[in-house]
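Researcher: Next sequence.
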Amino acid sequence: MRGVNSGMATAEREALVLALLMLAILTGVAIVARPMTPIDETRYVSVAWEMWLRGDFLVPFKNGAAYSHKPPLMMWLFQLGWAVFGVNEWWPRLVSPLVSAGNLLLTLGLARRLWPDRPGLAGTAVLILGSSLLWTVFSTSAMFDILLAFFTLIGMTGIAMASEGRRSGFVLVALAVGLGTLAKGPVILLHVLPVALLAPWWNPGLRWTRWYGGVLIAVLGGAAIALAWAIPAGMAGGEEYQRAIFWGQTANRMVESFAHRRPLWWYVPLLPVLLFPWMLWPGLWRGIKTRLREGVGRGCRFCLAWMIPVFVAFSFISGKQPHYLVPVFPAFALFAARALDDERRLNGLWFPTWLIVLMATGASAVAVLRPELVLRNVGESLALWPIAVLAVTAAAIYAVGRRSARPVAWLALLGVAVSGFVQLGVSPSLYPAHDMRPMANAIRQVQESGRPVAHLGTYHAQYQFAGRLRAPLQEFDEVADLKNWLAGHADAAVVIYSKQAEALREMRPLAMQRYRDRYVALVDAASALVSRPGSATMESEKE
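Model: Next structure:
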């Protein structure tokens, strides 16, 4: 028995090392293949930059105004690295991968706690999590979701500990609620509370009064942690900022969330893509079928109490985005690992691997035979070599992995290969349309010459950090208001957008580049004043 356990521990370590290695490779690929992209990544790092410039680590700022849409924890992490390494772009791009590595370790520990008699299961869960397509993308993005998942996992670990009679688990729950709120707001409660409230279902025998009393105290403790920042920040940020962080943002988001912009079923058809390759693997479905037929125990019920309420809640909230589901991915990985644990032979590797071979081969053929379709749907160009290598890699994974009775590692490599090679393939199109540095540097040069710069439309601060700008842009929603301002600032320049490149070129811009699905130009006041209000050459930037 000792030899068996030793072998399981070795397999678990090997799985963790492989998952961390895959994360490191994807991080390198992401840094090389894609710039820090607008509007989200550039906005959040710009908020951190403005806080850094102001020396104000209490109130986030965007383009010179208090920014109430997100709490400051991610920005603090950016600034922590800048304090050590100096201001740079690479550190903000490493924060999410480092947090993602922490998520892998927490998932490993939670698997051991939920299934202490199944030591091999934890390694499987880590590989499934680390290779799921959406997880790989956001593990290398400067956004909040991986950080929110980290505190969700801390909360789940605390709940599992508390259910075993360890009161220190409620301390972890309080930390998860408080720091999770500082990471992305009160949404942490949606991820943590359902499991806590459903504890009598997945862990029968709990004393209800003591349990729910502990949960309440933990939530109040978490609220105290969040308020330790929110109260002084509200006092420093002013009355409008106070209303926004204590009530306005929450109320507005609730109204917008139930505005029925996307249908109830919107997430369902996306799941096979978001959870690729696992939801397309017949071996997993056979394992789930067996597990449901034989009955789900404490650990599986814990995962279901984690996944299902959150998925249902986000399905009813119509303001849907795929990355909102990131914090429930560890629950899926744990549940899937348990479903696979009793299966002696796992086959069906052919379907996800050959699907990728066919898709990659087809994409390469289209790029060669019908390049105009690539230009219309992908962008400037598609690098063919990564797509061709992906097809060969998927075929090789099938050739080697089909002989394995436990092909989880091979499927994990397939998921990482798809994520990495696709990013490399579309990289030539990402940089021209999403790298904000050329325009941002042009704006900086104008500002350094002492001239003001205006911006037509909603400004998401996409140029602030990219150009290391030290002054905000004058923001105007209407063309008429902008022209009135320009009439009194003849030396100014203005950032404008259009889908008509030639129209912008006729204005003799100081700088011009692609911007997402359109073009952006920096023009002087005289050129902007000649433009007709509302014409195609002066469109407002939209989110």
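Model: The domain at 437-530 is CATH 3.40.190 (D-Maltodextrin-Binding Protein; domain 2). Residues 300 and 335 are 6 Å apart (CA to CA).
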